[in-house]
Amino acid sequence: MRTIHFRDPAVEPASNGWELPLLVSPLFEADFVHGFTTRAGGVSVPPFDTLNLGGKWGDDPARVAENRRRLAGAVPGRCYVARQVHGPAIVRVRAGEGAEAIARVEADGLVSDAVGVSLGVFVADCIPALIADPRTGAFAAVHAGWRGTVAGVLPAAVRALATEFGARPGDLRIALGPAIGPCCFEVGEEVVAAFVALLPDARGSGVVLPSPRGAAGKSNVDLKAANRIVLERAGVSPEAIDAGPECTHCDRARFFSFRRDGSAGQQMGVIGRSGA
Fold first, then answer.
1. Of 40, 78, 171, 267, which residue is most buried, by most CB within 10 angstroms?
2. Considering the chain, what is the average pLDDT of its residues?
3. pLDDT grade, residue 16 (50/70/90)?
4. 50: cis peptide before it, omega within 30°?
């Protein structure tokens, strides 16, 4: 992935305004406007500094609103989000649909093919996954933590794109954004058991790894490796999955991390169609 900088459109030169860095994938065509935010480019103060986009953890609502306004300027139309619950439910968003109604729906994935609509997910260690289909114009935003991963949320999104829009898994392009890495995602035996139930070869395939600390009863999990495997099993081409190495837990300067900092802020992954 590479970093682009969305700049305050009202100020020239940009050095007198603000810049909002976004990580973007080279796999997506130009009309799929997308990006993964960092913690830079906003107005929130510590511990939410600066581009906190989450509104439920105690940040000043006016600051969160300004942060969201800045991000909204970088994507087409209104950005829809759902009430994330760490499950496999996927919801379709249609042009003109009420954003407030969608925000009350319990789902961890949103799909659409509407021009001028954007979809977003909140994260602070979980994987923000963005999906685009250049053939049909359909796209999706998915929140995949460990519970969503073992529940099959990303294969569910692939199926929803097929059912709703006729998308073929082999045509999809998928970017897995910044998330906690295998270096830092230490789990107990119950989580290991869930991954082994999903992927019997979880240890041999590098999804479940020995604890680097040698901690008894602990292992580390590679969330992106697990999702790569389930996506490929769902028919997605390995070359069409962009999974960057960024670890939210390691990189305090760039990312919020719930495991590291608790309720101190959230990033977003967003995608929309510009119709260009």
1. 267
2. 94
3. low
4. yes
pLDDT tens per residue across span 178-221? 999 999 999 999 999 999 999 999 999 999 999 998 889 999 99
Q: Is 220 exposed, middle or buried (0-12, 13-18, 19+ CB in 10 A)?
A: buried
3-state DSSP of 117-172: EEEEEEECCCEEEEEECCCCCCEEEEEECHHHHHHCHHHHHHHHHHHHHCCCHHHC
- Domains of the chain, by residue range, sit at 2-180+241-273
114-146 tens-digit pLDDT: 999 999 999 999 999 999 999 999 999 999 999
CATH of domain 2-180+241-273: 3.60.140.10
**Is cis: bond before 47, omega within 30 of 0?**
yes
What's the confidence (pLDDT) of residue 14?
Answer: 54
**Centroid of chain to Cα 34:** 11
Q: CB of 271 within 8 A of CB of 137?
A: no
Beta strand segments in the chain, E = 2-7, 19-24, 32-37, 78-80, 90-92, 109-112, 117-123, 127-132, 139-144, 173-176, 186-187, 208-210, 219-221, 241-243, 267-273
